[in-house]
Amino acid sequence: MSLSSLLRGKRKLLVPLLFLTFLLPIVSADVIYFYQGTINVSTTQSPITLAVGPNGNVNNYISTTVPQGNSSFTANIYVTNSTYAYFYNAVKMNVNKAGNLYTNVTISPSTASYINNMWLIISSSSSTYVIQIIQNGKPISSQTTYTLTPGTYYISFLVQPNTPLPNPSQSIIETVTVNLGDNLVSSTPIPLPPV
């Protein structure tokens, strides 16, 4: 057998192997279908706006702020070694469109245990909702929604501290973050994203 016929035989074997080598990445590659969507953004009236309530600022007991935009609030509350502390009408909430309110709650640090139980009390002239947000030192999120019709509501905080508390100080000992969801479509609580 001549050298040229031997190479021709190897070429016949080499060509299919090269073809398979190039084909394998194509066969084993991911298949991705691409769909495009367009999201046009416009503004509308917020279904809920917030303001400092009539009792939102009482020197050495509560300090409440609502930044421009009226979509969040910060309340600094000062608790004592009492059985309960009640911060009445700390935040004013104007409901512009009927919706279903629910909560998602976290505490920081996650091992904090200065608050044993805590409730949001949301009230209007015709209804009151008592929503527990901390139970036995652990944050809890609502499993149900609370129907709000257009009108003015006030948010109060009822706090049962774990006593004894540390000595009085301006230092923050626990932070409770309450995300309020307002479902305008249904009464189903939808998981709120971390914000």
Structural features, described:
With 195 residues, the protein is mostly beta strands. It has a domain at 48-183: Jelly Rolls (Sandwich), CATH 2.60.120. It has one helix and twelve strands; from the N terminus they run αββββββββββββ. The protein has one helix spanning 3-28; strands spanning 48-52, 57-58, 62-65, 74-77, 85-95, 99-108, 115-123, 128-135, 138-139, 146-148, 151-161, 175-183. The strands form three sheets. It has a six-stranded antiparallel β-sheet, with no helix packed on it. The chain has a three-stranded antiparallel β-sheet with strand order 2-3-4, with no helix packed on it. A three-stranded antiparallel β-sheet has the order 10-6-12, with no helix packed on it. It starts with a helix and ends in a 12-residue tail after the last strand.
Give me some keywords for this one.
three-stranded antiparallel β-sheet; 13% helix; 195 residues; mainly beta; 1 helix; 12 strands; Jelly Rolls; six-stranded antiparallel β-sheet
Q: What string, H for helix and E for strand, traces the elements in order?
A: HEEEEEEEEEEEE
| Percent helix range | 10-25%
Using only C-alpha atoms, the radius of gyration works out to: 30 Å
Mean pLDDT: 86
Given helix and strand content, the structural type is mainly beta
User: What's the architecture of the domain at 48-183 in CATH terms?
Assistant: Sandwich
Write down the overall geometry.
elongated
Task: Please report which band the strand proportion falls in: under 5%, 5-15%, 15-25%, 25-35%, 35-45% or over 45%.
Answer: 35-45%
CATH class category of the domain at 48-183? Mainly Beta
Number of helices: 1
Number of strands: 12
Strand order of the largest sheet: 1-5-11-7-8-9
